[in-house]
Amino acid sequence: MQVSSICLPAKVPVRVKSLHTNPATVNDPTSTAKVAAPKWAQKTITLPPLKRGCHLITSKIVKEVRQELSEYQCGLAHLFLHHTSASLTINENYDYDVRDDTETFLNGIVPEGPSAPWKHTLEGPDDMPAHIKSSMFGCALMIPISNGKLNMGTWQGIWLCEHRDYPTPRTVVVTLNGI
């Protein structure tokens, strides 16, 4: 592991920890260095229906990929949600009020009901607002892997935001890549 300092344009020193391989030795037949080949793993996780709102799902995701995750020293975990009326985001993992306040905020900026201006209402008055909210947060996350664990901040957690009144099971594909 190498520790170095870099300077940003504002002359603010930043400490950087890096774990890397030397690419020059990968294709050098005279090198005696051993370089681990990148590996891939993928798992599809089905989450049960969750009521409308923001839900902390970090422990569920980690539980499902713990064994595979433990095989990676350095890499990336990509999470992809197979739905257009729910979303994924990373946010506060401790105080439930943050999840509740986020839901309140979303409902305040994306109108619903008979007075809302939406044309798309095939699946009910919460359908189009759910699509807009999903687009705001997105359906994918990328999280670093370090020493067999998701490398997230102390207060960070993975949220599934359910934007429908009548939810269904949600599917998340987790793809791991690294060494």
Brief sketch in words of this structure:
This protein is 23% helix and 36% strand. By secondary structure, the chain is α+β, with helices and mostly antiparallel strands. It has a single domain (38-178), classed as Jelly Rolls (Sandwich).
CATH architecture: Sandwich
Q: Given the C-alpha coordinates, what overall shape results? A: elongated
- What order do the helices and strands follow? EEHEEHEEHHEEEE
Major sheet:
5 strands, antiparallel
Provide the CATH top-level class: Mainly Beta
Look at the structure and name the CATH superfamily: YjbQ-like
- The separation of the N and C termini measures 14 Å
Structural class of the helices, strands and pairings?
alpha+beta
The mean pLDDT is 88
**Helical percent range?**
10-25%
Strand percent estimate: 35-45%
Give the spatial strand order of the biggest sheet: 3-10-5-7-8
Strand element count: 10
The tally of domains stands at 1
Low-confidence stretches: 1-10
Computed over alpha carbons, the radius of gyration is 21 Å
Number of helices: 4
Protein name: Secondary thiamine-phosphate synthase enzyme
Pfam families: YjbQ
InterPro entries: UPF0047_YjbQ-like, YjbQ-like_sf
